[in-house]
Design brief:
This protein is of the alpha+beta class and 241 residues long. The chain folds into 3 domains: 68 residues, Integrase, N-terminal zinc-binding domain (Arc Repressor Mutant, subunit A); 82 residues, 2-Layer Sandwich (Alpha-Beta Plaits), CATH 3.30.70.980; 72 residues, Alpha-Beta Plaits. The protein is 43% helix and 22% strand. The protein has 8 helices and 8 strands. A hairpin with a 2-residue loop joins β5 and β6. 34% of the residues are buried.
């Protein structure tokens, strides 16, 4: 979930398996097609540039990337992709924002409702949850991949015009204003800092901590079920690690 808690862990742990089953390629394809609707030239379309970079990070074949772009620009059929965002509640009333891309909104909302109901959750009204979150850009830096000390990294992050950063074990998560993600990424890369995962997420203004292990297991099962749903790209919650 957003804020780089359980959702991010699940994505890292399950990443290889997801590539094998084709989910990540499918998600990346839809993201490229969606962003390419605003222009097929990544130099003129920063959102498309980001989507292509993420696809290349996942070793998506160039042919797949080109086809996805052409679907978005209308050169190939099959470009009817929409962004969706659902506000929901999980076990113990934790707040969720579920984001995805789909070619069939009726199917997607029905499947997400089913997942939520099976895992002690429910869909919320529009506006019921989003007010609890702020949207940020984020970039991940693996400290182990750098040859400089943490203090130097932090100074580079501050100079890059980032908004904030936090360390989770060996990963430094840099937060930016959404419109500044590309600029901050470029600034850090100019300092020879290798960027891992990057993108946009909803960060909870306030978090809640749940100590009960049984409840946390139920929440984990919900997160994993949402991760298995093909149209879901990201889930953000106000759950504290």
């Amino acid at each position: 979930m957003s804020g780089h808690n359980k959702w991010s862990k699940i994505k890292r742990q399950k990443g290889v398996a997801d590539v094998k089953k084709g989910k990540i390629f499918s998600q990346l394809s839809k993201a490229i097609t969606l962003t390419a609707k605003n222009g097929g030239d990544p130099a003129m379309n920063p959102a498309l540039k980001l989507a292509i970079e993420k696809a290349k990070q996942a070793n998506m074949p160039s042919d797949n990337i080109e086809k996805a772009i052409k679907k978005g620009t209308g050169e190939l059929a099959g470009g009817t992709i929409e962004e969706v965002l659902y506000e929901a509640y999980g076990p113990e009333g934790i707040a969720l924002i579920i984001e995805g891309t789909t070619d069939n909104t009726n199917r997607t909302v029905a499947e997400i409702k089913h997942i939520l109901s099976k895992n002690s959750g429910r869909l919320g009204e529009v506006g019921s949850v989003k007010w609890m979150f702020d949207k940020f850009g984020y970039l991940e830096i693996n400290k182990k991949e750098l040859q400089i000390n943490e203090e130097e990294i932090e100074m580079m992050i501050i100079d890059s015009e980032a908004e904030d950063f936090k360390t989770h074990n060996d990963i430094i998560v840099v937060y930016t204003k959404p419109e500044n993600l590309y600029k901050v990424k470029d600034n850090l890369e100019k300092d020879n800092i290798v960027i891992g995962d990057f993108g946009f997420e909803w960060k909870a203004k306030n978090t809640i901590k749940i100590e009960d292990e049984k409840i946390n297991n139920r929440i984990e099962k919900l997160f994993e079920a949402l991760d298995e749903q093909e149209d879901v790209n990201d889930v953000s919650s106000n759950l504290e690690e």
